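Q: I have 967 residues here and want to know how they pack in 3D. Can you give me a structure?
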Amino acid sequence: MIALIVAHFALAACAGPLVHRLGRRAFVVLALPPAAATVWALTRWSTAASGGADTWSWQWIPDYGVALDLRLDALAELMVLLAAGVGALVLLYCASYFTDDTPQLGRFAGNLLAFAGAMLALVLADDLITLYVFWELTTVFSYLLIGHGSEHRHSRRSALQALVVTTFGGLAMLVGFLILGQAAGTYRISAIVADPPETTLAVSVAVVLVLCGALSKSAIWPFSMWLPNAMAAPTPVSAYLHAAAMVKAGVYLVARLAPAFADVPVWKPVVLVLGGATMLLGGWRALRLNDLKLVLAYGTVSQLGFLTLLAGTGNRDAALAAAAMILGHALFKAPLFLVTGIVDHAAGTRDLRELSGVGRSLPYVAGVGALAAASMAALPPLLGFAAKEAAFEALLHGSAADRWALAVVVAGSALTTAYSLRFLWGAFARKPGVPETPVHRVGWAFLAPPALLAALGLLLGPGVGWTDRLLGAYADTFPAEGKPYHLALWHGFGTALLLSALAWAAGAVLFLGRAHVTRLSRRIAWPTADSVFGHLLLGQERLALQVTGFIQRGSLSVYLATTLLVMLAGQLTVLVVDTPWNGAVRPRLWDNPLQGAVAALTCAAALLCLTVRRRMKAVVLAGLTGYGTALLFVVQGAPDLALTQFCVETVSMIVFVLVLRRMPVHFHETVSTWRRAARIPTALAAAATVGVGMWVAAAARTAEPAGAAMVREVADHGLKDVVATILVDLRAWDTMGESAVLAAAAIGVTSLIYLHRRSEGTMVQEELRGRTAWSLSAHHSSRLPQGDDAAPERGWLAAGATLAPEHRSIVFEVVARLLFHPILVLSVYLLFCAESLPGGGFVAGLVAGLALITRYLAGGRFELAQAAPLQPGLFTGLGLFISTGVGLLGLAEGTVLHAFTYYGHLPVFGDYHLSTSVLFDFGVYLLVLGVVLDIVRALGAKIDRQIERAAGVLAPEGGPEAGGTPR
C-alpha cells in the first residue's frame, strides 16, 4: 500500500522532465502508478468482499498515539478502484486532450498525479490525523489544478474560493477529529467505528464539526458554490476531481463514520435535510444553464446531495444503495465530463445554444454520451437504474424521516432525468435555426477512456450482482433490519419501479417544457451562493480596512505600548486572582554581585532608549542591552549562549546601521508630553510583571528538572557540550523547524528589498561609471591630497579600487585582509568542536557571516561579491537540504533524526569519529551563512546599488560605458 502511494508522489516529482522529454505522451507513463493501484486492488477483491482487511502501520508520533495506519476493507476497496481506475483513464485521456506546446503542462501533470496519490492515501487511511493530512493535500492540489490557467482572473478566483471553502471545513473537521480521538481513546478509525464513544455533548459537537468538513468537501449546500466555479479547470480535472475523486471524499467520510455515529441525534437532521436540499437545488439550477460543463456541474452537486443522503441514512439497505450509487455515479459522470471535453475540443464551444448536429458528425461520441446519460437518468439496463432502485427500496421501507427523504429523492430524480435529456439535446441534437457545427475528427485514443467507463456502466447493470458481495460487506457493518436487500437489475414490478417511472415521466415533461421552466427558474431565482460568498468576502475586506485604519495609526510606539498594556492587564489579573506566590520559594536577587551590576547597567541602557531622539543612539543603546545579556550568560557560566548572543548582537547592529542609511537621522514621530512621561513607567511595569511571572512559573515546578537527565545522557555518549547536543540531537526537531522559519523569514524580508527579482543586475566592477555609494554622500576635503597621491601603494582588497582614495582606510583594509581567513577557520573550528567545547552550527555560521561583513565594510559591495561570488540562496537551500536529508536518514533505523556515529582511523590524524549530528549542524551552518549573506546583500549591496542608480553612476543594462573610471 505505502509503496503505491510513494510511487505516485515520486513519479509526480519527475513529471516536469518527463513532459519536457516526451511531450503529452508522458501522461501514458504517469498513468502507471494509478493503473498499478487498480490492479493491486482487484487482486484484493476477494479478501475485502469476505469482510477481511489488509493493514499496514507505522508509528508516526508514538508518544501521542499518532500512527500512519492504512487499511483496505470493502469501502476502501471500492474507493481505491474509483480513485485509481478513473485516475489512470483520465491521465490517458490527457495524452489526447492536450498538445505538446500546452503551457505549463509538466506542472499540471505532476499536480494531477500527486492528487491521485493523495486521494489514494486518503481512502486507505485508518487514522484520523493521517486522513486529515491527506485530506488537506487533496485540497492543495485541487487548488493548483483549478487555478492551472492562472492568467485568467476567473481561474484564480475559482481556485481561491475552492481553497477557502474546503480549508474552512477541513479545519473544523480537524477539531472534530481531535475531540473524537480523545473521547474514544484512540485515533484509529476502525477501532472508533467498532467501539464508538458514548454520545455526549462533546461527541455531538465533534460530529457536527466533522460533518462540516465532509459537506464542504462534497459541495453540499450551503458550501456548494465552489464546485460549479471549479469548472474553470481543464476538463480532465473536472472529470476526475469533481466526478470520481475529490468530491467523493466527503461522501466517503460520511459513509465511513455512519456505522458509528448515525444514531447520534444531530447526525440525521443535518445529513438528510442538507443532502435533500442540495439534490433539489442543484438539479433545478441545471435546467437553466447553457454551458455543458455547468449543466454537469450542477448535476454533480445534485447527485452529491443524493449520495450524502443515502450514505448518512444509517441502515444496511441504504448503505448498500449508497455504495452502488457511488460506483454508478463515477461510471456515468466521469465519461460525461470527458465527452464534454471531446465536444469542446472538436467544436470549439460548450454552449448548447451554438451546438447543432454534433451527434451526426460524431456518432460514436454521441453514443458514449447517450449511454452515460441514460445511466445518470437511471434507465434500465444500466448500473444507474439498479442503484436507484436499491435507493428507493431502502428509503421506502425505512423510518418516517426516510419516507420524507424518499419524496425528495423522487423529485430530485425527475430533475436528474430532465437535465440528462437537456445535456444530450444540447450537445448532440440538431436545433432549428442553428447552423450545423463544424467539428474535426476524434481519434480512438481520445474516445477510449470515456467509452470504457460508459461500457462498464452498461456491463455492471445486468452484472450488478457481481458487486453485491463486496458492497454488501460494507453494508453489513450496519445492523440488519429484516430480510437484507441484495443488488440485482430486476426485482419485479413494485413500488420502486413505479416511482422510477414517475420520475422519468416528470423529467420528460420538464424537458419538453424547458422554455417555460427556464423562464420560471430565472424569475424565482434566489441570489446565488457564489454571489453571497463574494459579498461576504467584500464585506470582510471592508471591515478589515476599517478596523485596520482605526487601530493601526502608523506609530510603532503605540503598537508596542498597546501590546504591553494588554499583557500587563492580563498578567496582573491572573496574579491578583490566583495569588500564585503563596508558598513559592523566595527569589534571590543574584547568585553573584557581578550579576547585579551587569543587570543594572543593562536596564539603564534599555531605559535610555526611551529618551533619545537620534536613531543611531537608539541602535547603540539597544545593542548594549544585548551585550549586557551576553555578559549575564558569561557570569552565569553559559559560554555557548554568550557566544551566540554576542554574534547575534553584532550582526544585528551592523544590519541596523545599514538600514539607517536610508532613514532620517532623528525620530520624527510627534510625542506628547504625557505619552513621553508614560513610557518609562509602562516599560518598568511590564518588565516587573514579566519578572514576577517568570519567578512564579519557576517556583511552581513540581517535577524534577530535565537538566540533570540531559547531562547524564550527553555524558553517556562521551560528549561534554550539553547545549549543542540538545540542539542537534535531543531537540533536533526544534532546530530543524527553527531553521526553516529563519530561512523563510530572511527570504521574505530581503525580497521586500529586491521587490522584482533577487538577482537584479551584476556585481562586476565594470558596471560602475562613477563613484560608489560610499563616496557619493561624502564631501571631498580640499585639505586632503586627491587622486592617486593619497592611494595606498598596494591593494589589500580585491575590489579596493572602487573606493574613492580619500575614503579608504589602509588600517581597516589590512585588518580585513589579515583576519578574513582566520575568522573563516575559526567558524569551521566552532562547527566541529561543538561536541565538547562551546560552538555549533548556528554560531559558526554567524562567525563566517561576520567575516563576509568585514570584507563588505572594508571594500563595499564589489568586495563582497569577490569574497562570496555564489548566490546566498545556494547556501540557504543546501543547508536546509542537508539538515532535512540527515533527518530523513534516521528512517533507516525507524525514526526521523536518529543519530549515527561512524568510527575510523586516518594514517596521520589517528582515530576519529563522524556523527550525523555534525552533518546536521553543518546544514545549519550553511543555512545561517546564507541568511546573513542574503541580508547583507539586500540591506547593504542592494541599497548601495539603488543609491548609485539614483545618482546616475551605473552603466546601462546593456553593459558598462566605455571610459567609465571607477573611483
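Q: Anything worth noting?
A: The two ends are 67 Å apart (CA to CA). The beta strands are 54-61, 66-72, 901-906, 910-915.
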